[in-house]
Design brief:
The complex is a heterodimer of chains A (260) and B (382).
Chain A lengths: L2 H21 L2 H5 L28 E4 L6 E4 L10 H18 L17 H4 L30 H22 L30 E3 L4 E3 L1 H10 L12 H12 L12
Antiparallel strand pairs in A: 1-2, 3-4
Helix pairs in contact in A: 5-7, 6-7
Chain B lengths: L7 H17 L3 H17 L7 H16 L10 E6 L12 H14 L8 E3 L9 H11 L6 E3 L3 H4 L5 H7 L4 E5 L2 E5 L16 H9 L13 H12 L7 E5 L5 E3 L4 E2 L3 H8 L5 E5 L6 E5 L2 E5 L34 E7 L5 E7 L5 E3 L1 H5 L16
Parallel strand pairs in B: 1-2, 2-3, 5-6, 6-9, 9-11
Antiparallel strand pairs in B: 1-12, 4-5, 7-8, 10-11, 12-13, 13-14
Helix pairs in contact in B: 1-2
The chains are: A mainly alpha (260), B alpha/beta (382).
Chain lengths: 260, 382
């Protein structure tokens, strides 16, 4: 990216942050002890895979771990592979990953269906603040895999970051100003603790929207009406934070897409 | 003023209640004929397929007959109506909630015969501002029947009741009407959470206005007012029917949202000696009823927005209303009316806008659900 462009984005986002900080209403301030007052940054840097350059003119393909890569010889950038070649390449990638991560178990999603926890799920929504449930893997159990090399501290940092994001969503959810409401209405007025937002039922068909809606579509609809603000684009930090808060209130509830 | 301009919804509801009223006046033989025609009319207007409401209302008609006979202690049956929880913002900010309140006023003015009086159930204003309260008073002034005012937390916590009392008088009072003793309570006192936090009046108001804001205290009637209640009841005989108006539920439903009265047990103990006690409360914005000992509880609908059922604590006797349709501004809202029977028990009609009305009979509660169960919801909360 051109350095000047980066600079102007940084300036803009700083302005946005200041702007938002000014509009936090006394309502949010009154909640100071429960809601951290950090404000969504609209242009936090998105990290991309750092793919090594090709060594002999082929295309380098990297796994989702951001580390394991192979080069497909003779494949020009932007050129599609045949189905058979694609299968061969993915197998080769997985083989390499297994070699580099001995002892790591690759689990098939279908074998891992959670037991029906429906009855437990009907219970009270869980508060946003909770620490990581499963204990971090210890070196005594398995060795050498990526996740085992993280420490308790790493997990705590991640959890804190996640909770912060959820708390930002909570602030927005409770603030007619941050939602851009022109009529002084915020989500919590009708959804205390995000009750009855049912994020676990998406995607589902919404007749009035005449399409299969994702949670974010429904949030946007509610921002437009009844809140009477401007809809947010799907990658808007405020929309992402709202989604995070709403989902966090339903921890433990089984996914049940399509439910009405 | 909108009372002179009828909304589409009001016209529709008028048509419907006209049909229902004429049904009540029919004998059995002509009933089927008209019920068929009514079902046709209702279908033509695009309402849901006809089901419960004709039957429910005809069942009512039988009861209405017995109202006209004299009660045991010479009490006369009568009807009063309510609207509640209008949460008005000033006109420049939000018209939607104003429309709701105006619609309820139109509904009640269309009742024939008129109710003896109208209860306003509290939370007239959204943020306790004088302008909100004054506009609310203007809207309520359009009611033909006399109005009994009750205060809610949204009316109170900006100036701790100064404007409200200035406009409407003392928040707790009692009166007798046709053999029934009525008491209106101020049941949304909160222990001081604001001084230590150095909150401005606006901050205090906004904290209380956030249903899920945990900083605030729980609602209570408080020691002083409980003493007042005892004194007020000292002259009332235990056989006299009591009807209590309270903004908070006067029992413990869900603490986190203040669907709750901290000293509910003490208040219930004061009411215990009385044979028939009915509590009519606001705040919860949903169809909600309960029976604890001798006391029947009914929650009122809001004219502004419906609230979800709380995740725990819902009384077993409550039949939930269907979840509201987020695409319909009026759904899950409404007003209602209450028929005080000659024996002092209260039958209640939830007048849900854009839906069929639902009757909740006193006998349903006093029999602990054995008879007169209201129709089950198709879309319960989950």
């Amino acid at each position: 990216m051109h350095p000047n462009r980066l600079l102007s984005i940084l300036t803009l986002s700083a302005a946005a942050i200041i702007g938002l900080a000014f509009t936090i209403p006394f309502h949010a301030r009154a909640q100071q002890s429960t809601v951290p007052q950090s404000v969504p940054t609209s242009s936090e840097q998105v990290v991309h895979h750092n793919v090594p350059a090709s060594t002999d003119g082929g295309t380098v393909i990297m796994l989702c771990d951001g580390k394991t890569s192979i080069e497909v010889k003779g494949l020009k950038a932007g050129e599609p592979m045949s189905h058979a070649q694609a299968i061969a390449v993915t197998h080769e990638l997985m083989d390499k990953w297994r070699r580099e991560n001995p002892g790591e178990k690759w689990e098939m999603a279908q074998e891992n269906q959670p037991e029906s926890a429906a009855s437990a799920a009907a219970n009270a929504p869980v508060s946003a603040a909770h620490s990581a449930k499963s204990p971090p893997p210890t070196r005594k159990i398995q060795q050498g895999d990526t996740y085992a090399s993280f420490t308790d501290r790493d997990y705590k940092i991640w959890q804190t970051e996640t909770d912060k994001f959820v708390a930002e969503g909570k602030t927005i959810f409770h603030s007619s100003k941050l939602l851009g409401s022109t009529i002084g209405v915020s989500c919590d007025m009708c959804h205390p603790d995000a009750a009855n937002t049912h994020p676990e039922t998406y995607p589902k068909y919404q007749v009035q929207l005449q399409r299969v809606a994702l949670l974010r579509d429904m949030i946007d609809w509610c921002i437009e009406n009844p809140v009477k603000g401007k809809t947010l684009s799907p990658d808007d930090e405020k929309l992402r934070a709202l989604e995070a808060y709403i989902l966090a209130q339903r921890k433990g509830v089984p996914l049940d897409y399509g439910k009405h | 003023m909108a009372a002179r301009h009828k909304s589409v919804e009001t016209k529709f509801m008028e048509d419907r209640s006209h049909v229902l009223e004429s049904l009540k006046r029919l004998d059995r033989r002509s009933f089927l004929k008209v019920a068929g025609a009514a079902a046709g009319a209702v279908l033509a207007k695009g309402l849901m397929p006809p089901h419960s409401f004709q039957l429910v209302e005809v069942a009512n008609a039988a009861v209405t007959k017995s109202f006209e006979t004299q009660g045991e202690s010479g009490n006369r049956p009568f009807r009063f109506a309510y609207l509640s929880d209008s949460h008005l913002y000033e006109r420049t900010i939000n018209q939607r909630f104003i429309r709701g309140a105006v619609k309820a006023v139109e509904d009640i003015n269309a009742l024939d015969p008129q109710p003896d009086f109208v209860l306003f159930g509290g939370d007239l204003a959204q943020l306790g501002r004088r302008a909100e309260l004054e506009m609310g008073r203007q809207i309520l002034a359009e009611l033909k029947a006399p109005v009994k005012m009750m205060v809610g937390e949204h009316d109170w916590f900006l100036d701790l009741g100064e404007s409200w009392q200035d406009l409407f008088g003392p928040p707790n009072y009692s009166f007798d009407w046709k053999g029934v003793h009525f008491v209106t309570l101020m049941s949304v006192h909160e222990k001081d959470f604001w001084t230590a936090r150095h909150m401005t009046p606006e901050e205090r108001m906004n904290t209380v206005a956030g249903l899920d804001n945990p900083i605030q205290s729980r609602f209570e009637v408080g020691t002083a007012e409980r003493e007042w209640l005892k004194k007020d009841l000292a002259k009332v005989s235990p056989s006299t029917p009591l009807v209590i108006f309270s903004h908070s539920p006067l029992y413990k439903y869900y603490r986190n949202w203040n669907f709750w009265t901290e000293d509910a047990d003490q208040v219930q103990a004061i009411l215990k000696p009385y044979r028939h006690v009915t509590v009519i409360h606001g705040h919860t914005h949903q169809m909600l009823f309960n029976q604890i000992g001798n006391i029947s509880f009914y929650g009122m609908l809001s004219t502004a927005w419906p609230w979800p059922y709380a995740p725990t604590g819902l009384p077993a006797l409550t039949v939930q209303m269907n979840r509201a349709d987020p695409f319909d501004q009026l759904d899950g809202l409404g007003d209602g009316n209450l028929q005080v029977r000659a024996d002092g028990l209260v039958d209640k009609v939830y007048n849900l806008w854009d839906r069929n009305p639902i009757s909740v009979k006193a006998d349903y509660l006093t029999s602990h659900g054995k008879i007169d169960r209201p129709p089950a919801p198709q879309f319960a909360s989950y």
